[in-house]
Amino acid sequence: MISCLKGELFHKSPEKVTILVNGVGYEVSLSATSLEKLPQLGEEVFLHTYTHVREDALTLFGFADTDEKKMFLLLINVSGVGPKLALSILSGIRPVDLARSIATKDVTRLTGLSGVGKKTAERLCLDLKDKVGIIAGGDEELPDFTAGSKVEGSKDKDVISALVNLGYPQNRAYIALSEVKRRLAPELLAEMRVEDLIREILRSLA
User: Fold this and answer.
1) In terms of domains, do 70 and 57 share one?
2) Is 0.85 surpassed by the pTM of this model?
3) In which domain, by residue range, is 76 found?
4) Are 46 and 5 contacting, i.e. CB atoms less than 8 angstroms apart?
């Protein structure tokens, strides 16, 4: 299993690169996001990699950072999502945003990604919603999906408490609240009553 490569960036195309390591050229498939982060031809490059083995082929997939590789490995464990589709998905969205979309069951955003239909989007949410907390997201951390998350202010606490009483897991409630607060203007949030905020969150969870 080849888990990483460090060498000269010898060739670059819209979907693949060749990394020259000690005289051996390794062809690696990358997402558009990782391709944008590569240096100029002839310069040294480091990639995390995944080795996909089939009876008729051995293919290397590369990633500019660990979060993208972690998300790739999660995606290919979902039924119907192969390495090529996983790479296509990661070409259209950052791992941290994909993790958030899955955790909040944002099917609309997921179906906007290349190759992802409604059934696939729903399957991603079902299979991965409790696993995407491993994605740190570089300079932006996701809420902890596996442990209790902090809330700010009595209104937030009341909202989380109400959602938990309605049967939603605490972490799911926190994530949904965070998404709604991010989407709404601060002045509107300040005017909203607890029940109004709960209704807005329930609409986003529907």
Assistant:
1) no
2) no
3) 66-134
4) yes
